[in-house]
Design brief:
mainly alpha, 9 helices, elongated
Amino acid sequence: AKEDPRSIKTIFFTVLALGWRGTPQQWHSLEAGIRAMAVIIIPVAVSVHTIVSWDFAMAVAPMWHSTIFGPYFVVGAIYSGIAVLMVAMYLLRRGLHLEEYLSDKVFNNLGLLFVAFALMWGYFTFAEHLTVWYGHEHAEILVFNERVSGEFSVFFWTMIVVNTVIPLAILPFPWGRKPLATAVVGMGVMLGMWIERYLIVVGTLSFPRLDFNVGTYSASWVEMGILIGSIGLFGFLYFTFVQVAPIVSLWEVREGEHIQHRRTRPPPEPMAIQAGSEGKEVRA
């Protein structure tokens, strides 16, 4: 049925279209913009995520001014982003029946990328703690010992297991890159990356350089409620949005179908050439 041009839905999407009419010039501008953004987004991502590490480096807290923090935070941000993406893709695939678009191949390729970032994150984590242990600076070794074998050891080793051991034990194998397996691994990494931030902030601030008494921290029910409520609010808004706006980019799907059709289209049959009665070529 044809949409009513006066309906709220039609007006809403007309405003969001920003004058898009699908003209050849607009398509050309769109493709040029996508190519430009693919290049620009790389330095933008690096600059955005290293700013967090610079914020920590401005303080004198132990283990907050490591020279490896810049790339460590970039890798961690992309790593956790892939984890959230895998979980969201699985939920959308199951909830909206998008198996045709979010195929097993997509999860397989994303799982291979996840393995690479699991290795990088594990290397940076090992390098950071090896440097602290080898340097044996008094304030930093206190934090290190509490992470590895002290009050925060349960958090630390849980982070290591869910961020490196489990992904590297499951995802390298084809059966481990199925949709459900990748979603489970992604949820574990989301937990592990939250623990990493907890250890960086709470674990470090429990041992200040200033001459204060060393204290402990435990989250109150108010803080836990804020955390759970924030996660719930994000999930509610996201899944409400996908009920209103198309979750699959329609023009990208049509473009992919067009490219696939051109690839699978059989080549034209060659025309036979025969000699005519007067020696002229006749094409059959």
